[in-house]
Amino acid sequence: MTNKSRRDFFKKTASFFPAFIGMGVILNSCDSGIENSKSNESKNEKKSGTSCDDLSGLSDDDLATRKKLNYVEVSTVQSKTCKLCALFIPSKEGSECGTCSLIKGPIKPSGSCVYWAKIESGSNV
């Protein structure tokens, strides 16, 4: 009698596996749609120049360095902004943000940090 019960149990259990696999496929395709949507949003941000706020590619160490160097997106001293700093590298892609020699990730031209360095002109040498 226990063999019959065991056999019935396995038959009933086996009938649920296709349903679980089907649900997994459906849920996985839903996640792919979400990821594709996020990817498209990210591409649109880069085109519109708002990618300066995207820190998703930075490691925890990179984010800690930004904080340690007191990087802010808007400088409190207008004569010491990133766009006036020797360490700032403007974007060649037409984006508003650039990069920095010290800090990884996007840098706003209006920002600043504790390592601001005046751009030296060739005539002062």
Description:
- This protein is mainly α and 125 residues long.
- 45% of the residues lie in helices and 3% in strands.
- It has helices spanning 2-48, 60-68; strands at 88-89, 99-100.
- It has 2 helices and 2 strands, in the order ααββ.
- The N and C termini lie far apart (99 Å).
- Strands 1-2 form a two-stranded antiparallel sheet.
Strand and helix layout:
Layout: H1 2-48, H2 60-68, E1 88-89, E2 99-100
Antiparallel strand pairs: 1-2
Write a concise keyword list for the protein shown above.
single chain, 125 residues, mainly alpha, two-stranded antiparallel sheet, 2 helices, 2 strands, 45% helix, rod-shaped
What's the order of the H and E elements?
Answer: HHEE
Largest sheet: 2 strands, antiparallel
- In DSSP terms (H or I, runs of 4 or more residues), the helix count works out at 2
Strand order of the largest sheet: 1-2
Total count of strands = 2
Radius of gyration: 27 Å
Strand content: under 5%
- In the predicted model, the low-confidence regions spanning at least 5 consecutive residues are 40-50
What proportion of the residues is helical, as a percent range?
40-55%
Q: Mean pLDDT, nearest integer?
A: 77
Overview in brief:
The chain is mainly α and 125 residues long. Helix content is 45%, strand content 3%. The chain is built from 2 helices and 2 strands.
